Amino acid sequence: MSNKTDPALNIILQKIRLINFVEHADALRPGHKPIIVSIPEDSSKFQRGGVNVHIPLTFSDGVRWLARIRQKSTPSTRLILESEIQTMQFLNAAGMQVPNAFMPRGSLDFCQDQEDRLPGPFFFGPFRSSAHRYLAQIEHVLREIEQGSRAFAGDEDVISVYVTHLWLKDLMQNSPRLWEEGEQTFLKHADDKGDQIMVDKDGKFVGVIDWEWAYTASKSEAFAAPLALVDVNPFFDGINDLSPNEEHLVNAYNKYGFPDLAKCVRDGKVYQRLPMVIGQQPDLVQLRALEHAFTGKMLDCAVNTELGEWVKDMAGGRYRMQVLAMKKIKVVAAKD
Predict the structure, then answer these.
(1) What residues are paired with 69 via a beta bridge?
(2) Which of 15, 271, 305, 308 could form a disulfide with 301 if both were Cys (CB 3.0 to 4.6 A apart)?
């Protein structure tokens, strides 16, 4: 599909044409000014992914860079980029097959679109365990709801998300396995669905990209199977059985003498599922699957129970006092 008529991309292109890429690149790599800056004639010819527009630069000595420009901006965009760049620089300096990255002085933030809120929990920390990090994210969502800073379509959505996160908080706090993690921490890619891995024409591994939102994690979380290995349909149907690809990974770890990592894969479904529910609209299939991953049990409600019925039971029973208190807090916050 052509993007010629896309107003947002056309505006980005207009602003890109005003940037002095040569000056920025020369400041970062003195003495090697780019001789080719490949800005397309129209926005339909952009090299871009889901987040960034890419402008290729070729230096006089043949070195090639990509200038990345955000398609959409949030108040936290610069902080996010700085975090990603520092992660990439650290990994590159350590000899990992990760591209180096640089941020020019000033801002290359072109778009005016603003999201409703900051993604705060990823900037909290440091955490003593993965459990502490996920609990901080859950509590952040609860605070946003209480303060009225999280947008919803209606009151029913507010209650359902609030009750779900109260339930998640209880589930986390009553699951000893996550709180018994060791002292070791590892750097984990936050978007391991497979397209972060780069290979050459012969299928040889050449690097890993997209380090935005990378974070430190416990061993059990860091070595859980990546999402790239799950069978999508069974996974989203709430099934926690290992996929054939995950079984291959378990067998490979065992074969090469890493039974501890094999165990991380077998026990890792909880880490695949937590990001699917924290901060999201609730889905009973996913909640059932998450509790099963944590405890081996399913939600204490009939399989054919509707979400609204479960939320109503929780809001009127187990979490009645918290819901009433939240409504009062929201009223006070609205007056302020």
Answers:
(1) 53
(2) 305
